[in-house]
Write a structure and sequence with these properties.
Elements (H helix, E strand, L loop, with lengths): L39 E7 L13 E7 L6 E6 L3 E6 L4 E5 L21 E3 L5 E6 L3 E6 L4 E5 L1 E3 L2 E4 L6 E7 L5 E6 L3 E6 L4 E5 L26 H6 L2 E2 L10 E6 L3 E6 L5 E5 L14 E6 L8 E6 L3 E6 L4 E5 L15 E6 L8 E6 L3 E6 L4 E5 L12 E6 L8 E8 L3 E8 L11
Antiparallel strand pairs: 1-2, 1-30, 3-4, 4-5, 5-6, 7-8, 8-9, 9-12, 10-11, 13-14, 14-15, 15-16, 17-18, 18-19, 19-20, 21-22, 22-23, 23-24, 25-26, 26-27, 27-28, 29-30
Length: 433
């Protein structure tokens, strides 16, 4: 087993319309429409700790390879060094690094247990999954939330609860019906049926939206009797100005960022790391308070995905935008582009109807209505067959993608996972070509 890598957390305004009273919102808890379609799972990139699910003999794939599963899969999530799959029957499968409990199951019973998919024991059918660097989460059909693994900060292992790591599913958000969950690298976001947003985990870049900069560290001084680590790890509602009286109906989490959409409006409130303007706020510093992003509020979004220093967003017309840092080509705006300080349409995709987008740490992906996958950014986990960076969206081709239509992509730390419908169900051919 390779030693688990330790990721460095080092990181180099406006107002909203006021409402006369708190908006009443009840968001229906139902199976997300995106889970209706099922398909097969394909993976590419690093697999040294089992995150590809291809067995202990395959430690890397430069092109997409098929994972041999007995289940129909409706959703996938790539974590830092692990992968989650959601089956059509609402079961969760995991594989990859389990040093800190991210798989949520026993992996000491056999030598290759981390390298092959295994089921997580949960009490009810699951309708949504999310994964961070070292944690995983599941939203159950009845609105309960279970989470396992750990969060990390600048000092190392932060724990998942004040008791430390949780190697098996642990229920949080008691007394709330949750309708959506999202994971950053080391923080977790929940949206309740009443339109409230709760966060927990690492707060050092402002991603919890409820701590001051001074109070964001585990070493911060708290008031008498206040457990600082418990304050960070216990899910709590984000801090809003009382005069705003806001409710939300959608959430998204980037590596160190959080986005929340106001119910029945296009307004997007943001908080977290903004050193490359990836939140759409003009000041290049961490945003610890919840603030309206005028740039993100100017459009109606289907999906927002954040990498380490950039954000990719998909509007409801299928148009793809990028903002943030340019290095390694992660913006898809060409080799000669500058860092983007405002949401910019990606030219190579402007004539294509995109249905899904995703960011890895320094990679970006888009899936078109025709089932094609485009990738750009740091070479390695792109699936091109080469290690070179891609500065514009590049169509991914391989033998395994013939006769397959991709409909979902998820980027991890150094690997990528896709879901595809297929007329070629050969579950043993992992030949690269």
């Amino acid at each position: 087993m390779s030693t688990k890598r330790r990721r460095s957390n080092s990181v180099k305004e406006s107002s909203a319309p006021k409402l006369s009273k708190k908006t009443k919102v009840v968001i229906e808890h139902a199976v997300p429409s995106g889970l209706i379609k099922s398909g097969v799972v394909l993976v590419t990139g690093a697999g040294d700790v089992g995150q590809l699910g291809l067995g202990s003999d395959i430690l890397e794939k430069s092109r997409f390879a098929l994972v041999n599963l007995e289940h129909e899969i409706v959703d996938v999530c790539a974590g830092g060094m692990h992968t989650m799959c959601l089956t059509k029957m609402g079961r969760v499968l995991t594989f990859g690094c389990n040093d800190e409990g991210a798989l949520g199951r026993v992996t000491t019973d056999r030598e290759d247990a981390e390298f092959t998919p295994g089921e997580v024991e949960l009490p009810e059918e699951v309708v949504q999954i999310s994964a961070g660097d070292s944690h995983s989460a599941a939203l159950l059909k009845d609105g309960r939330v279970f989470i396992w693994g750990t969060f990390r900060d600048l000092h190392g292992n932060l724990g998942l609860t004040p008791n430390g790591n949780e190697k098996f599913p642990y229920e949080i958000m008691h007394d709330h019906v949750v309708v959506k969950i999202a994971s950053g690298a080391d923080h977790f976001v929940s949206l309740t049926s009443h339109g409230d947003v709760y966060t927990c985990g690492c707060a050092e870049q402002g991603q919890l939206g409820r701590t001051s900069e001074r109070g964001s560290s585990r070493t911060a001084r708290s008031g008498a009797g206040v457990d600082q680590i418990g304050k960070l790890l216990h899910p709590s509602i984000i801090t809003l100005k009382p005069t705003l009286k806001l409710r939300f109906d959608d959430i998204w989490a980037g590596t160190y960022t959080t986005f929340a959409k106001v119910a029945r409006r296009n307004d997007i409130f943001v908080f977290g790391l903004n050193n490359y303007i990836q939140l759409g706020l003009p000041s290049a510093k961490p945003q610890f308070s919840v603030k309206l992003s005028k740039d993100f509020s100017s459009r109606k979004w289907k999906l927002i995905s954040g990498g380490q220093h950039h954000t990719i967003a998909l509007d409801e017309d299928g148009v793809t935008y990028a903002i943030g840092r340019k290095e390694y080509g992660r913006l898809g705006l060409g080799n000669e582009c500058n860092d983007s300080e405002e949401l910019t349409v990606i030219p190579a995709l402007k004539d294509k109807k995109v249905i899904n987008v995703c960011c890895g740490s320094a990679t970006s992906f888009a899936v078109t209505e025709q089932g094609e996958l485009y990738a750009w950014g740091m070479g390695g986990p792109l699936g091109t067959g080469e290690d070179e960076d891609c500065f514009v969206p590049t169509l991914i081709k391989s033998k395994q993608l013939i006769d397959r239509q991709i409909f979902k992509v998820s980027g991890g730390g150094q690997h990528t996972v896709i879901l595809a419908t297929t007329t070629n169900n050969n579950k043993t051919d992992n030949i690269e070509s």
